[in-house]
Structures are given as C-alpha cells and as structure tokens.
Write a structure and sequence with these properties.
- This protein is mainly beta.
- The chain contains three helices and 17 strands.
- Strands 1-5-6-9-10-11-12-13-14-15-16-17 form a twelve-stranded antiparallel barrel. A three-stranded antiparallel beta sheet has the order 3-4-7, with no helix packed on it.
- The longest helix is centred in the middle third of the chain and has 25 residues.
C-alpha cells in the first residue's frame, strides 16, 4: 500500500514522458543536412535524359541540443507523496522541482534511390526536371534521462523511521520512472522512409546554372505513432511542401560558387496534432575543378522561422549550422559522377548534432 501511494505521487515525474516522446519531428526536419551541392555544378549545360542516383548517408548523432545550444534538459515539477491511510494530507512529504538532462546519441544509416528525367526540349530557355526519391534507413538510438532524486520535506510529526522507509521507496520509484522513459526512447529500427516527389525547371548556360523546383514529401516511412520517442525512419503522419532555388555561377571553367535556398511548409501530424513550424534552409558551396575531380567547401544552415504548434516543449525552434567539404570525380567505366561528402555540426539549437557522411553516384543516360 505504501509503495502504491508513492508510485501515484510520481505523476509529476511521469509528465516528462510526454515531453520526451512528442517533441516535434524528434529534433530534426525534412532536409538533407549532409548537403545536396557537389561537383555536379560543373555538369555539361546540355544534359538531358534519364538520371539515376544512389546515395548512402551515415549520421553519427553526438547529442540533442536544447534552446540554449547545450545538451537538452527538461524540467520536472515538484509534488507530494501520499502516505497510507489514515495519515492526513498534512503529513504528506513534498519535494521540489528538478531538471533532467536528456542525453540522446545514436547512428542513422540511410540509403537513397533517386530516379529523374530531364527533358530535351526547352521551356522558357530551360529544361523541365521530374523525379522521385525513396529512402531506406536503419537507426540505432540510445536515450538516457538523468536527474538527482530531490529531497523530501517532512512534517516533524512523522517518525524518522517512517521517513527513511518512504524516502528509500521514493528514490527507487523516481529513478525507475526516469529509466523507463529513457528505455522508451531507445532501440533499433529499420524500414522505408518518406517518399519525395520532385518537379523543377533547369536553366544551364556556360557560366550560369539555375534550378528552381518544388518537392512534396509523403508520410510513407516507418513510424511508430504509439511511441513517438522511439527511433523512426519516417518523420510522422504529415506532409511537407519544399520549394527551392539553386544558383551556380562559374567565373571560370574551373571555379564555381553555388547557393541554394529552400523553404519547408508542414501540415499537422494527424496522430498527435503537433505541427512542426515552417523552416528555411540555406546552402553555400565554393568549388575548384582539378584534373582528378572537383574539390569543394560546403555549409548548410537550417532555421525554423515559425514555432511549433501543440509541442510540449513549447515554442522551441530548430536551428543547425554545419560545415564540411566534398570531392566529386568521374567514374570512367560507368560514365557517372561519384561524390564523397562530409559535414559536421558547428552549432545547433533544439536539434540533433553530430557528423554526416555521404557517398552518392549519379548517372545520366
């Protein structure tokens, strides 16, 4: 009976579960943080026909950051611990609020297959581009929720022996609740990800390349609606419309500067009524074409400019800044472009932080 009363008194601690479980999009957005710009900016301006691409991305998640840019934390409210009848409420011990540190690490392996078509005819001086991308992923996630057990504040009328017994059971239940929440946010999963459908307009001259288009991301991925804190391959039961424009300028045949602007517009997740705030992404790259291939430096910045709706974390906004480099070379036997890319998080808020490595192969038939 005493243990049951203490367990019921931990409802405030258990409220942390819903916060950890329902953070909007699990501290990520539908954007390729590894970067989408590579040596393809030097592709011949008259490219057309069927294009097929495959990519493998390895993400090493070092931590999840909070609104201050440090390791994520979550408040745990204080409360009281009911004692067995006939003890009056005046004798119930109370405990203060505390803060839990949420350490989330893991790996995410993503394999993408993309198929597209570039028209040979021109429209307004450019060619039309249509495509689709389907990912398959494997994710391992480990979550730890750590907080010190708060001290119980007692009425002096309660005997010291009873205080010690209750405090011991309270501590075990408090830490057990944190451990169960951490376990709910850990595990391994693999499956199909969210399908992307793309359409765009490509203008390519000797020194200027412009690609403007829009992507529609469908909720086709593996996703556990009953436990959103568990690792998933899909992002959730909602849609994202992502318009983008990419401009590459080649001052000389061997140098190129590229910028890309993307916007993300999300619908509401139909499972938990959380709507992830809209965001913008900005990429920049500078590259040099050597005899063996293209060497480049690359940066990716993504920022939510709109707060989430119905997010238990409150008005948190995703932000991440990443920098790295890439190398693109031609595979003669396949007549295809091979790109090796690496990106690391420089700073982040309300986001996963780590490193992103990618290898991709693109061939135009």
């Amino acid at each position: 009976m005493l243990h049951r009363s203490i367990y019921l008194g931990l409802a405030a601690v258990s409220s942390l579960t819903s916060i950890v479980a329902h953070a909007g999009e699990d501290f990520q957005v539908r954007y390729n943080i590894a970067g989408a710009i590579g040596g393809e900016m030097f592709a011949p301006p008259d490219s057309s026909g069927l294009a097929v691409g495959v990519a493998a991305t390895y993400i090493d998640i070092k931590k999840v950051t909070g609104n201050d840019g440090n390791t994520l934390t979550a408040p745990i409210p204080g409360g009281t611990v009911p004692l067995p009848a006939p003890n009056p409420a005046a004798l119930y011990p109370s405990y203060g609020a505390s803060t839990a540190q949420v350490d989330a690490t893991g790996t995410f392996k993503i394999f993408n297959l993309a198929v597209g078509y570039i028209t040979s005819d021109t429209y307004g001086g450019g060619r039309l581009v249509f495509g689709g991308l389907l990912p398959y992923g494997t994710q391992t996630k480990t979550t730890q929720v750590n907080a010190s057990t708060p001290a119980l504040h007692w009425n002096p009328a309660v005997p010291s022996a009873a205080q010690s017994a209750v405090a011991a059971q309270f501590g075990a239940s408090y830490q057990g609740s944190l451990a169960s929440q951490a376990a709910a946010g850990s595990g391994d999963v693999s499956g199909i990800g969210d399908l992307e459908l793309q359409a765009g307009w490509l203008y390519a001259a000797e020194q200027l390349r412009v690609l403007a288009g829009v992507s529609l991301v469908l909720p086709t991925g593996q996703y556990n609606a009953s436990n959103p804190s568990a690792p998933d391959i899909g992002f959730g039961n909602f849609y994202t419309v992502r318009p983008a424009i990419q401009v590459a300028y080649l001052p000389t045949p061997r140098t190129a500067l590229t910028v890309k602007l993307s916007l993300g517009f999300n619908t509401t997740n139909r499972d938990d009524n959380v709507r992830s705030g809209n965001w913008l992404g900005l990429e920049g790259a500078a590259a040099y074409k050597a005899s063996i291939g293209v060497f480049g430096l690359h940066t990716v910045f993504v920022q939510q400019y709109q707060s989430d709706s119905n997010n238990p974390w409150g008005s948190s906004r995703y932000q991440t800044l990443n920098a790295g480099g890439f190398f693109t070379t031609k595979v003669p036997v396949l007549n295809a472009a091979l790109t090796l890319q690496y990106m690391a998080t420089v700073s982040s808020r309300n986001a996963r932080a780590g490193s992103f490595s990618q290898i991709r192969l693109i061939k135009v038939f």
